[in-house]
Amino acid sequence: MMERSTSNMTYQAWRHESEIDPPGLLLQSRTVFEDATPELVRDFFWDDEFRPKWDPMLAYFKILHECPENGFMIVHWIKKFPFFCSDREYIIGKRIWESGRAYYCVTKSVPYPDVPKRDKPRRVEVYFSSWVIRPVESQKGDGQLSACEVTLTHYEDMGIPKDVARLGVRHGMWGTVKKLHAGFRAYQNMRKSEVPISRCAMLAQISTKMSSEEYSQREHQVASSREEQRRGGEVSFAGERRNGGSVDWKWVVIGGTVALVSLHMGLFGKAVLLGVGQRVGRQRR
What we know:
Protein name: START domain-containing protein
Transmembrane segments: 251-276
Keywords: Membrane, Transmembrane, Transmembrane helix
Domain START: 1-189
CATH topology: Alpha-D-Glucose-1,6-Bisphosphate, Chain A, domain 4
Oligomer: single chain
Organism: Cuscuta europaea (European dodder)
Structural class: alpha+beta
Radius of gyration: 18 Å
């Protein structure tokens, strides 16, 4: 779909036509930032207080709930869109898992009765966006892990025709990526100063750690689940609608990994985050 680069950033993107209910566009991308640490990139993507400085679409945000023990939070967003789409409202749960210096950042629409739906702005009830953030070798060829790779998977049902969404993505993607990159470099400079970090960034640093043994055990679980999927199972992004919002275990793709996410009373309970990107990799080749 797209492959662009600058002197210190590389970006690749793929689009998949989703056949799930409701149908929509599943976007995947890989970004490599030179001279960047995974920890700073993690904080940047999580920092909704800083986000309006590079993302003009975020008109409003508020932290509705936070858990200081595991960093989980629920946020309220209102985003402004171009002329073809009215404003949209989001209630999003966010949590991070960590294995070594790799971070698995999950954001997903969640129920929150204290903020009832309104006619306007329209609420996006099917939303999933996540990042796998890890150190990689620099393109400088010095063998140092001084670059950071971000693998994104994004899906949402905005309630607009697929052709309109496809057109908007194609024409606006590179401009958005350039704003994101400029925003990250500004964030990088800001963090070098003595400015206190935001509450969002503080919560990003409270991730749930997974041991290498636990990671290996869950790899075995995923291998079994992949075999089950080949026998007829399917990956679901929108299970809540079919199950009336009840507690439900479901598979969700996270940019070359798979997570088994439990939603219970609006909070993420557990997640299995594992490296099973071979299938996605084969599709890209």
